[in-house]
TrEMBL record:
Pfam families linked: BON
UniProt lineage: Bacteria, Pseudomonadati, Nitrospirota, Nitrospiria, Nitrospirales
InterPro entries: BON_dom, Lipoprotein_DolP
Protein's UniProt name: BON domain-containing protein
Signal peptide (UniProt feature, chain positions): 1-29
Domain BON: 74-141
Domain of life: Bacteria
Keywords linked to the UniProt accession: Signal
Length: 221
């Protein structure tokens, strides 16, 4: 499962580079803010094959193209990228998924086929650059309900074990709370990729929903 998601994430990066060739509407070396005058980001004139996944000038990060305090997409750019990646994904029916973005937080609503598609949609939104993803998706197939077979204490233990066994997550920095099958993750992590992986781990352990209270801590390495 981890390998498939890693390959899927890599294919998204390559497809975005080939299909789009860069973020739209950027101007030369100018610090600007998003639509809410909140999140600063740098604009410049991209060359035809620019892609932030591969551009060191914004701080190299294979999954996102930037590090903690470097390039930040505007809300409209982030929404466009999420929708594009949904359209390219064989796992998500983008016609039934609505995306809204407010200050880097993506909200997904609408419906997906099953639990696996819901997890994929949330991970795609994280991989597209969202700081946080609010999952309001409903599932058309509801037979799979792993949280219903576990009490909150057992689910908490399953999530902690999943985080501990993950090669992509430092579980020492993450605490887990569970109530009525809904998991909440707390703590500081090294990068946004770790946030996405931790959320995925909690879903794989059987959580009904996952609330992320994780943040990127520059002091964590």
């Amino acid at each position: 499962m981890k390998l498939l998601h890693t390959l899927h994430r890599t294919s998204l990066a390559i497809a975005f580079l080939m299909g789009v060739g860069g973020a739209p509407g950027l101007a030369q070396s100018q610090v600007v803010h998003d639509d809410y005058d909140m999140n600063p980001y740098y604009e410049y004139d991209p060359y035809y094959d620019y892609d932030p996944y591969l551009d060191d000038r914004f701080g190299y990060d294979y999954d996102y193209g930037y590090d903690y305090d470097d390039y930040v997409l505007t809300d409209s750019e982030l929404r466009q990228r999420i929708k594009l990646n949904f359209a390219m994904s064989p796992f998500v029916d983008d016609d039934n998924v609505r995306v809204s973005v407010n200050r880097g937080v993506a909200t997904l609503s609408g419906s997906v086929e099953d639990r696996s598609a819901m997890i994929d949609a949330q991970e795609i939104a994280y991989d597209s650059g969202a700081w946080k993803v609010r999952n309001k998706l409903s599932q058309r197939e509801t037979e799979e309900r792993p949280w219903a077979d576990m009490g909150d204490r057992e689910l908490k233990k399953e999530i902690e074990d999943e985080l501990w066994s993950s090669p992509f997550v430092n579980s020492d920095n993450i605490s887990v709370g569970v109530r009525n099958g809904v998991a909440t993750l707390y703590g500081g992590v090294e990068n946004k990729g770790e946030i996405a992986d931790a959320v995925e781990n909690a879903y794989e352990a059987g959580a009904k929903r996952v609330k992320s209270r994780l943040w990127v801590d520059p002091d964590v390495s």
